[in-house]
Amino acid sequence: MISIESSSVEKILIIVAIRIGAGLMEKRDMILFDLDGTLLRIDFDNFLNRYFKALTGEFTDLAKPELFIKVLMKSTQEMIVNDGTLTNEEAFMVSFFSMIEVEDIEATKSRFNSFYKDKFPLLGQNVKANTKVLEMIELLKDLGYTMAITTNPLFPREAILQRISWAGLNPEDFVLVTSYEEMHYAKPNLAYFQEVIDKLDVSAKSCILVGNDLQEDIVAGRLGIKTFLVEDYLIDRGSEEEIIPDWRGSLGQFIDYIKENF
Question: Are strands 146-149 and 207-211 parallel, antiparallel or unpaired?
Fold first, then answer.
């Protein structure tokens, strides 16, 4: 019979406790999901074209369609380059109303809100939920992970919640959904990801980011976030600096990876 000194037993128990604790820490990891092209099966460029056409049609009394689209694009760019002084919503509105003259700004803002509530949902009529996405979210919930949706905050919350519903998902499963009302930066600005981390009150090293855009999503790795590139709807615009994800593959492969490693 082999005897083990009590001190050795204590050391073994300490090691086991540390390993169990490390496992529990992994269970509490924060997963940051991009939305379009990641959780939502959609051709985003095609969607944007239909979105701009629909929104422009609501404001033909304010400007010709060609001018209105230019104003939308310029105001959207102001959100992308936002330095944090304003929320993205404020940056958009300041830019928009500097180029479009209206008698009643608040009434015009209400027209935007009405569009997102009544007309925007129609853009998702032919969008179908991806069963693999639903499987993945349920799997991560069962494993105890906390999740957030870190879509580029260039839309109001109402529009983002609509797109989440198109994906067949429940917003209540996510502790944060970034939108233009509350965020002060946009992708690919690293300050956007830092703002997300600050809002969640977590560290970068406790986060995993899952996205389909090499330049706008995977760049978050520079903060120390572990990055997973889902390539089903891959976007790679090319860049001077090489951006390398910690993992890359299809959504199906990612689900297998979760089952084996999370």
Answer: unpaired
Asked whether the beta carbons of 22 and 138 are under 8 A apart, the reply is no
Write out the two tokens for 187: 């992708």
DSSP-assigned letters across all residues of 67-94:
HHHHHHHHHHHHHHT--SSS-HHHHHHH
Summarize pLDDT for 139-155 with one digit per residue, the tens.
Answer: 999 999 999 999 999 99
Helix (H, G, I), strand (E, B) or coil at 96: helix
Specify whether the CB–CB gap between 34 and 210 falls below 8 A: yes
Residue with token string 């593959």: 249
pLDDT at 5 over 90: no
- Using DSSP, state whether 195 is helix, strand or coil: helix
The span from the CA of 204 to the CA of 89, in Å, is: 26
* Residue 56 CA neighbour count, 13 Å, CB half: 17
Residues 6+ apart with CB under 8 A from 131: none
Name the DSSP class of 118.
Answer: I
Q: Which two tokens stand for residue 139?
A: 């799997």
Radius of gyration over alpha carbons of the chain, in Å? 22
